[in-house]
Structure formats: C-alpha cells, structure tokens
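User: Hi! I'm working on a homework problem where we have to compare a predicted structure to a textbook description. Could you give me the structure for the chain below?
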Amino acid sequence: MPLRVAVADTDSTLSDLLADVSEVDLQVGLPGASAPANGARLPDCLVVTDPNLDPGVVETVKRGRIPVIVVTEMPLSAFIEDEHIAGYVRPGETDADTRSHLLDELRWVTGHETRQQLRESTDRVTALHDATTTLVGATTTDELYRRTVDVANDILEFDICYVGTVEGEKIVPRAVSSDAPERGARTMHIDEGIAGKTYRTGESQLVRRVEEASEVEPARSEYQSGISVAIGDHGVFQAVATEPDMFDEQDLQLTELLIGHVAETLTRLKAEQSIRIRERKITRLHEGVTDLVSARSVEDLFQRTVEVAEGILEFDQSYVFVVEDGEFVTAAGAARDDPVDVGRLQMGRGALGETYRTGESRLTLDIEQDSVAEPVSGVFGSGISVPIDDVGVFQAVARDTRRFDETDLELAELLISHVTATLKRIEAESGLRSERDRLDALFENIPDAAIAFEFEGGQPIVQRVNSAFERVFGYGADEVVGENIDERIVPDGVATEANTFNEGLKSGTSLRAEVRRETADGPRDFLLHVVPISLDETNSGGYAIYTDVTEQKERERQLRRQNERLDEFASIVSHDLRNPLTVADGYLELARETATGGEAELERVADALDRMNALVEDLLTLARKGKVVGETSRIDLDEAAREAWTHLATADATLSVDTGLTLDADEPRLVELLGNLFRNAIEHGEASAVRIEGTAEGFAVEDDGHGIPVAERDEVFETGYTTTTDGTGFGLTIVRQIAEAHGWTVSVGGDDGGGARFEFEV
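Assistant: Happy to help. Predicted structure tokens:
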C-alpha cells in the first residue's frame, strides 16, 4: 500500500518531485486543525519546506502522530528542539539527488523501527545539547579539540575521529580519538583529499564507500567510509570507519550540529586569545615607544624600528626601505643568522611599490598567490607592508604563508604611526637648525640689502640690518633699528601694497614682487623677497631682502625706446624709401619711351630697382612678421596654394595640387610661405612645374627645376643665402620662420640636380 504523503510547498517543487513515485500517494496541502471527517485517513507523513507550522497543524500532527519531514537549506540546529519534526533533508545539487534523499527519509521515518530510531536520535540530540556546556567551558583551543573528539566518541559513537586545524598551507591533526590506530591521522596539504575539499569549499562530505570516491586519500588503507565537516575557516573534523556504509545523513546532520558549537566556541577562544596577545603586544609596544621616540637621527630611528618589530611584535624578519634616486634602498633590517640580501629595488616593484604609491597598507597572506607581490627570494611566504609617510615603506616578512593576520597589521600600523611622528620631529628639528643657520649666514653674507624684523602691535619693527642695507638705502643701523620700516622706506600711495605683504608674512607666506622704495638718495626699484620664519604658520616676524634692480629697469626702459625707434625705422623704410623707388621706376619707364640709346644701362637700373624693392619687402617681412602668427583656423591647403600662385609672374610654369588636406594655420602667412616657395622654384630653380602633395607627416612642395645641391641643403634657410646675383637671400628664411611660428618643421629633399623638394611636418 503506498504511503499517503501530504506536501506543503510554495512553488510545487516537492510535489513535482514526488508526483510520479509509485510508492507515494500524494496529497497537496496541510492537514486541518481538527480530526478528518467521515473517518478519512490522516497522511502517513507530512513534508514541508518551512518548519514554522500553524499551531493548529502542529496539534493535528502530534495527535495523529504524523511524522514531519523538513526539506530546507536551514541548518538542523534551527529547529532541532521542535518535537514534531521527525526528519530533515537538505536539497541536493540536482532534483534527482533531492528526491533520492527525500525518499530515503520517508522510508526511514515511516518504517517499523522509526519510533525507536526517533527516540534514539532525540536522545543523541539531547546529549549533544548537554555536551555543549562541556565544549563552551573549554578555556584553551587544545582543550576544546580534545573535548570535541570525546563528545564524538561518547555521544555520536564514532570510533575513530580527529580535529585538524589549518597552519599555513597544511591541515595538522590537533586531537585524535584514543581508539584510533597509530598514525590514524596525518598532516596534509589544504589542496589534498576530502579534508582539503571540505576546508576549501566549506561543504560537509559524506563518504559511504571510500572505494567509490575518487577524491578520498585516507590516512590508512583500512578506512572504508567517513564524514568530513568544516570547522568554520579554522580547520576540519573527520570521522572514519573500517567498514563501508557506517555513516548516513543523520550522522552527518548530528556531526554538523556538534561542529557548529565547536566552531562558535573556537572563534570565541581565538578572539579572546587574539585580544590577549594584542593587549600584551600593545602594552609592550607602548613601553618600547619610549626608546623609539628618543632617537636623535633618522638612521637610529629606523634601526630601533626593526628591533621593536622583532623583539616586541615578534615579526620574523623586517625592513625599512627608503627612496633614494628613484629606487628603494634598505635603511635598516632585523639581524638574522640567515638574512636575505634585498639590495636596491625599483620604485614600482611589487607590494613594496604599490604600498608606497597608494599610501595604503597591505596584508599578504600568501605571497605566491598574490598577483602584486614580487618577492626577492622564494623563501618568503607572507608579509606586511606599511607606508612611512612619503619617505619609504616598512615591511615584515615570514617564510610561512598566513603568518600574519589583521591584528599584526594593526600593530605594525601603530608602530609606524609612532615612527612617522618621530621622523617628522627629527626632520623638523634638523630643518629648524639648518634653516636658522642658513638664514643667519644668509643675512650676514648676502650682497643684497636685508632687514630682520618682528611685528609689534601689528607694525614691522626693525631688529637688525646688514651692511648692504646701509650702503644701498643710505640709512645707518642706529637710524632704523627699533623703527617701523614701512614708515621709513615705503613711498606715499603704496601703503596698501606694504600691508598686503605684512599680512601674507604673518600667515607664513613667502612673497616676491617688484617694488619701488625710498632711499636716502631718492626712489629706487627693487625686487623684494619677504621670507617668514616658518612657512604655512602664524609668524611673529621674518626677513625682507631687497635686490636693487634700478639699473636693470632703466635698461628695460631704454630697450623699449630702442624697439620703438626700430619700429619707426621699419615704417620709414616702408613709406619713405619705397616712395622714391616708385618715382624712379616711373621716370625709368618714361625714359624708355622718350630717350634714344642707353637701353642696356636703363635695363640695369630696372634690375637694380627690382632687387631693392624685393630686399625691402623681405626685410620688412622678417622684421615685422617672421616669428609672429596671428589667429589660426582650419585652412584648405589646396585653396591657399592656388591663391599664392595668382600673386606670381609664373610665365609658362604650371601648378599641380590635389591634396585634400586642411591645416590649422594663419591663412595670409600660409599663402606667403607657399608664394616664397613657388617664387624660389620658378625664378631661381627655373622650374616649369610645381607640385604639392600630402605626406604621412604633413605636406611637401616639389618642383622640376635644377634642385639644391646636397652639400648646400643645410644652408638654404640661413639669412642671405642665394644662388643668383639678383636674389635677396631672405625668401627661404621667411619660409622657415613662418613654419616654425606655426610649430612646424621644414627640411630639404629631392634628387641632386633633379628638382627641389621641401617637406613639412605639421
């Protein structure tokens, strides 16, 4: 007769799993709170996903003695005290696994021995709860491990079991049952066997038959079945038997219940132990800080740092690295019998470089698995890196993995905080001494006029002056010491300027400005440098240094006047010189029309006038525009070339251009640049064709003239260079000036004697 099973689930998952099982008469829904009418039969079993049933339903299942099975991810400990719960199934990896486990549980809770088994199970659960007091009462981890094995032996009736904890990369046996054979448990790597899998995944393992489980690597060949449960992230509990099928789901569930209490207790004990160790180290560290902060030099401070790290924090090996010339250099290292020579290290290297770059501490549990770490030696397994301000990095390393934890990192940071504070004090004291000595020497020996003053009632009162002040300003020390210096040397109308300097100085700001001050011989120009005693702090005084720049300012004024005269000269050349040339050209034309003979001489005059006009144009271009480019915009190179071509007497020469390029350029200057190149090609290179082409870097202008000799190509852009008697020598100079003003470069190419080529990189 099939089992009458009532199922209560929210998404029909369990109903679907049991729908096609022949041995199950499926009933969906919970039984009512009252007895069924008409003698209807109650279900043989109730399967639910939520153990929290309505009180009326609980009363019904108790009255009808209906066993309840809970299918849930919740741990058994969450509802173990609910008397109406008879069975527990944790969903498997697949639906088939879940159905298989559920059918096993149905058979078990409804079998003829069910009541006795339930009583026995309840007794074991009750005994486990009673044993919790024994576990919680353990005062050390070793005592807890021993008691765990005893409870598993006595209550769960496991003959052979052990507790292993993780130390570095190993799982090490810490307590083994007394009935275990010799070498019944062994140390293994965390990647090894079922114990390793349990620790890595945190998932319990039930091995019914060792011969069918490929991952099992038993310590002894006679082990045939077993259970493996993770103790949090601390280690693994395992029970084994010399016969197969000695453990079932109930054994696994009860083991998990036991180990849950063990894990909680172990976490508490380790936390308490960590707190005790931390408090002890902090106490010792504070005692050691007294010696640390008494260091009087940076070298002494760093050496004391590694000594404290080794002696008080109990770090195996530690270093202080400082930055020198773009590299890490060992400033101090703990003394060992077998030290590792780290030498000089690059700034960007590994955890050291990242700690310095980010300013954040790093805890590396496993150096080999850390993508950032680049150890100088393969013997290192774990480490700590803590930045020492912007000076360097403190590192502690150990040969084992997981040697350090967050507490070690916290203590290292506490140590380095004292180191940083002491370092700043040493540097400040050294800096103050050096600054005081430097300023005193500077004040006495500086060739410029200098004043030392303090603020009294907000007024800058002179404390002393150097001999250069007396010489430059013409006031003796006895005249100005004790006086308000502003009232003596600040001209009328610039008092606000002087007050601004004073306020800046009070706040610790160094100031530099050109000023005019009164001397005994009248006003003079100075470069004033106001220096506070301490930067970025409130100051009660400082120094004022006056560099006399009167003659320099006068030279600048003269230079401006000279530039103005040069500009005036350019205008004269442009206007006054060109006009007579125009008149002469006109009379020459008239003479050609009316005079007889002398034609050759008149032709020479015409040539000379043409050369003079070209020379004036080129000189003005270099003087006024050669290095000046106006506002730029996107210019079509082809259109600019055609525009330049229209301004030339090109005779029968032709222009070929189809680059499609646009450039950021000053259009008039670009047209001028191209025009000079075209004129050079036609008039001096005797070219009959000019071509512009685009290049990978910019563009090139090429002609078919006689070219430029290779030996002369370095000289063609120099002022005055020409290959003809009527050339001015400025055309290509102007080309170079315009190109450089745009930020371009120009070079000469082409075959020797086979045309010239000018290439531009833009």
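For your comparison, note the following. Residues 186 and 334 are 35 Å apart (CA to CA). DSSP finds 19 helices and 29 strands in the chain. Good luck with the assignment!
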